[in-house]
Amino acid sequence: MSLSHLSHLDCPRCGRQYDADVINNLCECGSPLLARYDLASITTRPGDIAARPHTMWRYHEVLPVRERVISLGEGMTPLLPLQRLGLELGVPGLLMKDDGLIPTGSFKARGAAVGVSRAAELGVSAFAMPSNGNAASAWAAYGARAGLRSVVAMPVDAPSITRTETVISGAQLYLVRGHIGDAGRMIADLIARSGGALFDASTLKEPYRIEGKKTMGYEIIEQLGWRCPDVIVYPTGGGVGLIGIYKALQEMQELGWISGPLPRLVAVQSSGCAPIVQAFEAGKRTAEQWPDPRTVAFGLTVPKPLGDFLILDALYATKGTAVAVDDTDTVATQARCAQLEGAFVCPEGAATLAAVRKLRESGWLAENHRVVVLNTGAGMKYPFEVSAPAFDPADTLPG
Ligand SMILES: *Cc1c(COP(=O)(O)O)cnc(C)c1O
Ligand SMILES: [Zn+2]
């Protein structure tokens, strides 16, 4: 028996509906599609969930997988109080959802677990996608577990560990001189020439990875005792996690699992690639292509997110905001977090902490706000970002 209450897919732009039990990519109008559930038929209450296994599959009613879950044990990562760093940043109630502790070392595992499970049960046997590194390593790993063939293209500058992870899982890897948009063009070409053999699993062209990433929203709320924080701060590349968290909040509201105002959502980008921040500041509903994107927070190097209007809608609807931080700030904050909290976060996660400092200084955040930042990956995946000089024993021994 299926535990999913998935009913159909619909288009958030034009409203067209699609059958969820056949393979779909984008809407005819070019928009990403969103999975919808028969929420009214769900009788589960928050208290029923407590005793379930500690993975993201504990929310199976609102996940799209009907039969076969491909899992490496992902989800229910810690929600850590960052008291010492919080004091330094001026927000003592600071909390960090730490997705550094998840299979493949980044939260892309959530999207891959659901995306691959769903692709496999709908009959896909091979998929292709562009990636900035972490999505490729996650999809390759889950693809291997499901027995699917995977083809990925990533920028030659992507973190080298993600290449290793991708190749060891048996994926076919292409390196592209350029950014993820260039990798995307290469993949589109391969798919077109494959005669239907390759499923297009590109970010948001495939409707289910967002369902995996939305579980971060469910987990944050459950870990806070089914109460909302004031603010959730998210490092935004393609924006899938932010769109997903917003979707989760809306679903929980409709299910009656939460009440009151939703948390204000904050999109954090790097000043070297900030199309969403630029659009938000101009009050626009879509983003412009960012020229020459560059940042140490490699997962944020997305010059024109396909779901830009969904990200911006979520920011406006929750009275949130968008902030760009400099790489120097990101790198310094990454070290501060490790020194004060023992948490070695990825640069993308560090960017959210740097943004908290900026938002506190500007007065957008108040001292008593309960703020949750997302750390989307393990700092250990990017060792080359950090210089680690050691002391020379000869310098410290008495002469
Ligand atoms: C992909 C990625 C992001 C950006 O995620 P989106 O949901 O696409 O905005 C942030 N951090 C890390 C570590 C990533 O790999
Ligand atoms: Zn449409």
TrEMBL record:
It comes from the Bacteria. Coiled coil: none annotated. It is an enzyme of class 4 (lyase). The keyword Thylakoid does not apply. Its cofactor is pyridoxal 5'-phosphate. Keywords: Lyase, Pyridoxal phosphate. One of its GO terms (molecular function) is threonine synthase activity. Its EC number is 4.2.3.1. CDD domains: Thr-synth_1. Residues 70-377 form the Tryptophan synthase beta chain-like PALP domain. Signal peptide: none annotated. It holds the Pfam family PALP. NCBIfam families: PRK08197.1. This is Threonine synthase. It comes from Kibdelosporangium banguiense.
